[in-house]
Structure formats: structure tokens, C-alpha cells
Inverse folding.
């Protein structure tokens, strides 16, 4: 399987494990879209934004003495975006409607982020 | 009475020297958000969120906010321009292919917030580069809106900032402030 097929299948499995999720994408740390499973919106733009958020989060962790960043999130009244570091090169983002089982979501997404990190090497 | 801090936005295309400028000029610890570049852009890393630094010129505190240069991060331009007093637009004289992007950034930012700007021309030491006058013609701005600098040089950076402050402050910066800038 090619690298992008492997990443795509991680996203597809994540979507089947979390049926409420509205979309998921993987981007490089510098904001280039690598793989996506997003039904609406401009995924290239989302990939850039996710990298901005993670990049800023990393520096916040340093400045606030919080160690290495593992994840960050953004919440609105109609949904949430969870952003996970995937090794030093990648970022995994998942868009979830408001509410839902966040514990399960984190469990699945953290595991997926580890697999993404392995694939990206 | 101390003046309120002045917010300067440093923008321009990839590789112009925005991050370098902020690191050169800031006297406080710089917040940089560079990540390894996936594409070949002539350098290892690229800014994904912002650069932040600050310096004092006499009593006047100046805050520097650098933007990313890649167009996919264009939403950061308006985020960082909010409440800004002036814009330093950096352009690499050795990368004429980026001038159109620079013009686009300049038009975008000045249409969002009508702030004074100075175009800082870097990489004038490159073997092949455009001259300042040619760049002024290209941007269709008077040559006094342009200033030559090497983003790695503190003296150059201070002069560029001074030129911008001349355009931002109603009474203009004082010669004491230039001396202070050069001494920091
Ligand atoms: N030779 C030369 N090098 C310069 C000059 N000004 C800046 N540089 C170098 O050019 C490079 C500029 O890189 P950055 O400061 O990362 O550029 P940037 O504008 O922040 O780029 P992005 O964040 O990717 O948009 C650095 O390697 C600087 O050392 C100059 O006048 N002459
Ligand atoms: Mg930069």
C-alpha cells in the first residue's frame, strides 16, 4: 500500500469507528493537506489552519511550561475541532458535532494519531 | 507619560526575511512558529502561525508581529493586522517571482486596515537581483517608501523601523529614538 493509501485507510477506519464525526484530515506540520475524509468545506484551507493551531499550541506549551504538546482543540456552539500531533511531521484533525462521547473520540483519535506518526516516519 | 505600545506587522512573501527580522530586532524572547517545510522553498523551515517579538525605543515600546508568507496561511494576515499601527512589507530583491504575491499582500492588508507602510527590500547582496528603483516602479510607489536592508543586520533593521516610525507617528520619531534604536 502506498503511503497515501495507508493514511487514507486510517482516516476511513476512524470515520467508521466514530460515525458522528463530520470529517477528518491529515496535514503536514507546515500545513500541506496529505489525506482527507471531509464532506464539506475547503480541506486545503482546513489543513493550513490546523497546522497554525498546532504550531501555536506547541509554543504555548513551551511558554507555559506544559512540556511537549500532544493535542489542542477549538470549540464552537455547533461543533468542535480536535487537533492531534502525529509525530514531528504530521497533524490529525477531527471535526465533531457539539456534544457526543468525547472520551471515546480521544481514545480512537490518539491511537490513530500514533499510527499516522508511524506511517509518516 | 509613557506612550501606548506600537504594533508593527511584518509581512511579505516566503523567504523575504520576516522571521529573521523579528529575531534580529527583538530584545525579548521571540515566539516563532516555524515548522519544517515540505516543499522546496530555498530554506529548511517556514512560519505557520506568527513571529512575535518586542523592543523598546526610549520610552516607546514596539511590538513586532510577523506573518507567515505562504498564501495558504492568508487568514493570519487579517488576524495579525488588527490594531496595527504600521506595516513593514519585506521583499527579497533576488526573488522577482514573489513580487506579485508581495503586491497582493500589501493590497490585502492596507485594504483591511489603512495603515502606513514601508517596503523593506532584502537580499540586495544576491548575485542576481532587482535594484530598489526597479522595485519601486514595479510596486508603483515613490522610492522613499522603500528601504534597503539585510534582515540579519540590526543596524539595517533599526533604520527600516525608523523609516516606518517616521510614517506612523504624527510628530515623527526623534533623533534620540534613532540613536536608542541603534544602541539596543
Ligand atoms: N544574503 C542575504 N540573506 C538574507 C537577507 N535577509 C535575510 N536573509 C536570509 O534569508 C532567509 C530568510 O528566511 P526567513 O526569515 O525564515 O523568511 P520568512 O520571510 O520568515 O519566510 P516564511 O516564514 O517562510 O514566509 C534567512 O536564511 C536569512 O538569514 C539578506 O539581505 N541577504
Ligand atoms: Mg517566517
Amino acid at each position: 500500500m502506498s503511503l497515501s493509501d495507508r493514511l487514507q485507510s486510517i482516516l476511513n477506519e476512524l470515520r467508521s469507528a466514530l460515525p458522528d464525526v463530520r470529517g477528518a484530515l491529515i496535514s503536514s506540520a507546515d500545513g500541506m493537506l496529505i489525506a482527507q475524509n471531509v464532506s464539506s468545506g475547503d480541506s486545503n484551507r482546513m489543513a493550513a489552519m490546523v497546522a497554525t493551531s498546532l504550531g501555536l499550541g506547541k509554543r504555548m506549551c513551551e511558554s507555559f511550561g506544559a512540556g511537549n504538546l500532544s493535542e489542542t482543540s477549538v470549540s464552537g456552539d455547533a461543533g468542535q475541532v480536535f487537533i492531534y500531533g502525529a509525530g514531528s511531521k504530521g497533524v490529525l484533525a477531527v471535526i465533531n458535532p457539539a456534544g457526543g462521547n468525547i472520551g471515546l473520540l480521544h481514545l480512537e483519535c490518539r491511537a490513530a494519531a500514533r499510527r499516522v506518526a508511524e506511517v509518516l516516519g | 507619560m509613557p506612550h501606548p505600545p506600537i504594533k508593527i506587522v511584518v509581512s511579505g512573501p516566503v523567504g523575504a526575511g520576516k522571521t529573521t527580522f523579528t529575531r534580529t530586532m527583538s530584545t525579548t524572547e521571540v515566539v516563532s512558529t516555524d515548522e519544517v517545510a515540505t516543499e522546496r522553498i530555498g530554506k529548511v523551515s517556514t512560519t505557520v502561525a506568527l513571529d512575535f517579538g518586542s523592543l523598546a525605543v526610549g520610552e516607546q515600546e514596539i511590538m513586532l508581529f510577523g506573518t507567515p508568507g505562504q498564501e495558504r496561511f492568508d487568514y493570519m494576515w487579517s488576524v495579525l493586522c488588527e490594531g496595527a499601527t504600521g506595516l513593514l512589507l519585506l521583499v527579497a530583491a533576488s526573488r522577482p517571482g514573489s513580487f506579485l504575491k508581495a503586491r497582493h499582500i500589501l493590497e490585502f492588508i492596507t485594504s483591511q486596515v489603512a495603515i502606513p507602510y514601508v517596503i523593506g527590500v532584502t537580499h540586495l547582496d544576491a548575485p542576481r537581483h532587482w535594484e530598489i528603483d526597479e522595485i519601486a516602479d514595479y510596486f508603483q510607489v515613490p522610492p522613499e517608501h522603500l528601504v534597503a536592508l539585510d534582515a540579519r543586520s540590526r543596524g539595517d533593521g533599526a533604520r527600516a523601523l525608523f523609516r516606518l516610525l517616521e510614517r506612523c507617528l504624527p510628530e515623527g520619531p526623534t533623533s534620540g529614538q534613532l540613536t536608542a534604536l541603534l544602541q539596543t
Notes: The CA atoms of residues 3 and 119 of chain A lie 7 Å apart. Helices of chain A lie at 3-17, 43-63, 102-120. Residues B 18-19, 47, 66 surround magnesium ion (ligand 2) (CB under 6 Å). Strands of chain A lie at 23-28, 33-38, 71-75, 79-86, 90-97.
